[in-house]
Design goal:
Blueprint (H helix, E strand, L loop, with lengths): L8 E6 L7 H12 L4 E4 L11 H11 L4 E4 L2 E2 L5 H15 L5 E4 L4 H6 L7 H19 L7 E4 L4 E5 L11 E4 L3 H10 L2 E2 L10 H15 L8 E6 L2 E2 L8 E2 L1 H15 L3 E5 L3 H26 L10 H5 L12 H4 L10 H4 L11 E3 L4 H12 L5 E4 L15 E4 L6 E5 L4 E5 L4 H8 L4 E2 L10 H7 L6 H4 L6 E7 L5 E5 L4 H10 L5 E8 L1 E2 L3 E9 L3 H14 L4 E8 L8 E8 L4 H12 L4 E9 L19 E7 L4 H12 L3 E8 L21 E7 L2 H11 L18 H7 L3 H11 L17
Parallel strand pairs: 1-2, 1-13, 2-3, 4-5, 5-8, 8-9, 9-10, 10-13, 11-12, 14-16, 15-16
Antiparallel strand pairs: 6-7, 17-18, 18-22, 19-23, 20-21, 20-22, 24-26, 24-27, 25-26, 25-29, 28-30, 29-30
């Protein structure tokens, strides 16, 4: 028996005939309604009686909601690989990750030549396919910053720009029969897709043997190659041949193929809607049940949990990989997995965790947290992965990645209450709320995750109008260190609710928050560039103008220090939270008087145009060094101190964010975050923490009154006192109640209060 433990999938293999163009579309919809997982189409671009397969795939993607779509198989000689890669990534993005790439080396060469293709020998066609796979994967690897060069014998790209990255890790399935092609499947592909009608007795087992041996030589577990099979047949009252008979016969024969020949995906070639319904509603569920019963008896290891020798060699000490909960193995990522590069880093910090768990349900979060606690390695919890401190990744530890918790749901239209998954991004939130005429104060960049910002502060471009993000949080769901799933609000676990708003990462895994959005139509968004040669004077004048401005105005200042042949400049990002352009222009003119105006652009747009949706393909950048401090006024002393740090050469990015306004409406002890009288948040980012600490402590720190932990990487214990002030003692009591063992200690750990 050869059972690779793949989760079974069932699909259809449809004819893209164009006599009635809507027929294949309707059959795809029938397939989805029948509960099938996959819809595939033949690809014969030289066949005038067929629709173009790629166009049909795109159309069907828009007419379906759940099924995965693929060519079966796409004709590579007539589809240039670089263009095919971009088309595949685009369709995957548009369909929400529902595309698989089935490709073949080519056949019917007379017809291919008639369409302008180049005839290749069997050996040449395999070489061309291998070159194409390298190009396709290279185009999809948008995280790699170098341009793509592949100088193949048949396919070449000379400096192609990479991207877009697809929505998910698109599997590549190859239609293959001969040994050389089978070895290519083992080395470079994710699946083997032959047709049963083209196979002789024993070919499945012989093909599996070749793939298994070649995969082992390449350091892969053979189970990393899914075995798919195109089948055909008919349901009849009596047995008339293989897959020609009653439903029970189909179930028995497909079950045998799964358990004895390792087939994980069965693709039925038919254009009969009734057969599709029987296949999806009766045959597929019965085969799944039969295979599951047998696997439970034999203890078959799921394919997702298996790794090749090369991957196993990359595993880290202190992690029991065999003990990963079964519910998490399919989406878990280890070093050596192709998805590893997309999950190892954060926005600024480079990481190399030993295991990334990606739960999809709160129960899986509970399981993942319990497992992580049992391992002797660091634990990071990640929502969007954008935090400057970057402690949601690590080296050699476990990361609990909440990216799948990305829903944005209106809970109560009357109170504008919105439930946000911790893994959602603020750009997606803003875009979702625009049709309602609502907005939530949420930073200045759409790629930031909800979970981090909504539990630490949220000093954003609507902050003076609506307060901090945490000020509008009304409830949260939290998984605590001991595995409890708690609801936190003013009425339920109020001490936890208090602590979450400022120190959430220290108290548990927040899976969602509920926030009362604010009514907001269009805003005025301004981008100014000012001459900052008189840096201190500019800061002082800008600060005074902001303090005099109405709450509708919030402004951020980015200071670029003087460099070789370039004077210092300041860039202002300002939002006037209202569409009254006359009032907005008046306030913006006052800001422009802070220094000589070099350029200005202004827009009236929805808030989603300011905090735009952004992807989460993070590449890290080393070990960031950042310091922050809060001040009440940008008076002369503060401005000159900030100017000295800017001119020291020790900081390459400096920013001042206006806060205050509505953020001052709460008492200092209303939330764990206590800073309710300061008007400005100062931040400097440098290359080395010790040098930046020295400059900051000498120049700026004497004037600051508190700090914002999300913008600080100085982990000396006194920073906690700066961050939480008089609230720290109470916070330690809350920590003792909910995390007495200090499980959540990766980022500015708060020590639980003594007994």
């Amino acid at each position: 028996m050869t059972d690779y433990g793949h989760e079974l999938a069932f699909g259809t293999f449809l004819t893209p005939q164009n006599q009635d163009p809507q027929t294949p579309v309707r059959l795809a919809q029938v397939s989805e309604a029948a509960g099938l997982d996959l819809v595939t189409f033949q690809d014969h671009p030289y066949q005038p009686g067929f629709l173009d397969t790629w166009t049909l795939l795109s159309w069907v993607a828009a007419q379906t909601e759940r099924v995965t779509l693929s060519g079966n198989v796409l004709n590579l000689p007539l589809r240039p690989p670089a263009v095919l890669a971009r088309a595949a990534a685009s369709l995957d993005l548009l369909s929400g990750g529902r595309f698989a790439l089935g490709i073949g080396a080519g056949a019917f060469w007379d017809a291919i030549e008639s369409m302008g293709g180049t005839r290749l020998t069997p050996t040449e066609s395999v070489t061309a396919l291998e070159e194409a796979i390298e190009i396709i994967r290279g185009i999809w690897d948008a995280r790699e910053r170098r341009i793509l060069r592949v100088d193949g014998a048949h396919h070449r790209v000379a400096g192609a720009k990479r991207g877009p990255a697809p929505a998910h890790d698109i599997p590549i399935w190859l239609g293959a029969y001969k040994p050389r092609m089978l070895r290519l499947v083992a080395r470079a592909a994710d699946g083997w897709l032959p047709s049963l009608a083209y196979l002789k007795d024993g070919d499945l087992r012989r093909g599996n043997t070749i793939i298994d041996e070649a995969a082992a030589e390449a350091g892969r577990d053979p189970a990393q190659v899914r075995r798919l099979l195109n089948i055909s047949g008919a349901v009849a009252e009596t047995r008339q041949g293989f897959l020609h008979g009653p439903v029970d016969q189909w179930v028995a024969e497909l079950t045998a193929l799964a358990l004895e020949d390792g087939i994980g995906t069965f693709v039925l070639g038919t254009d009969d809607p009734r057969l599709i319904q029987v296949y999806g509603e009766e045959i597929a569920p019965a085969v799944r049940d039969a295979v599951a019963r047998e696997r439970a008896t034999t203890g078959t290891v799921p394919a997702a949990a298996r790794r090749g020798a090369a991957a196993i060699a990359l595993r880290r000490d202190g992690i029991d990989y065999d003990a990963v909960p079964a519910s998490l193995t399919a989406d878990a990522v280890e070093p050596g997995d192709r998805a590893y590069e997309s999950v190892r880093h954060n926005y600024l910090r480079a990481g190399s965790p030993g295991l990334v768990l990606r739960p999809r349900t709160v129960d899986q979060v509970v399981e993942g947290l319990a497992y992580a606690r049992s391992q002797d390695v660091p634990l990071g919890v990640r929502s969007g992965g954008h935090g400057i401190s970057g402690r949601s990744t690590n080296d050699g530890g476990i990361v609990l990645d909440l990216g799948a918790f990305d829903t944005v749901q209106v809970v109560d239209p009357a109170t504008r209450r919105v439930r946000l998954g911790a893994g959602a991004t603020w750009g997606a939130v803003a875009e979702t709320l625009v049709p309602h005429g609502w907005a939530i104060s949420s930073g200045d960049y759409g790629g930031v995750g909800v979970g981090g910002l909504a539990t630490t502060g949220g000093v954003g471009l609507l902050g003076r109008t609506f307060g901090l993000t945490i000020d509008n949080v009304v409830a949260a769901q939290v998984v605590t260190a001991d595995g409890r799933v708690l609801h936190a609000s003013r009425d339920d676990n109020p001490d936890l609710f208090w602590g979450l708003r400022g120190a959430g990462g220290n108290l548990g895994v927040v899976t969602w928050v509920e926030i009362e959005a604010m009514e907001l139509g269009d805003v005025v968004f301004s981008q100014m560039t000012l001459d900052a040669r008189d840096t201190a004077g500019l800061l002082e004048r800008w600060g005074a103008a902001v303090e005099k401005a109405p709450r509708e105005l919030t402004s951020f200042l980015i200071l670029s220090p003087p460099r070789r042949n370039q004077d210092a400049v300041a860039q202002l990002m300002t939002v006037y939270a209202g569409a009254d352009t006359e009032a907005a222009v008046h306030e913006l003119e006052r800001l422009a008087e802070a220094g000589p105006l070099l350029g200005h652009q202004g827009y009236v747009l929805p808030y989603s145009g300011v905090v735009q949706p952004a992807d989460r393909h993070h590449t890290g950048g080393g070990d960031p060094a950042v310091r922050s401090g809060l001040v009440t006024h940008l008076d002369g002393d503060v401005s000159r101190a900030f100017e000295r740090v800017a001119r020291s050469g020790l900081s390459y990015f400096l920013q001042i964010r206006a806060t205050g306004g509505a953020a001052h409406d709460l008492a200092p002890d209303a939330t764990a975050y206590p800073h309710r009288h300061q008007n400005f948040l100062l931040t400097a980012m440098g290359a080395a923490q010790p040098a930046l600490n020295t400059a900051w402590d000498a120049e700026v720190a004497p004037y600051t009154d508190g700090l914002y932990l999300s913008f600080d990487t100085d982990t000396r214990p006194e920073r906690l006192a700066d961050a939480f002030g008089p609230n720290l003692d109470r916070l330690r009591q809350v920590k003792r109640a909910y995390d007495p063992d200090n499980v959540f200690r990766a980022n500015f750990p708060i020590q639980p209060a003594d007994g």
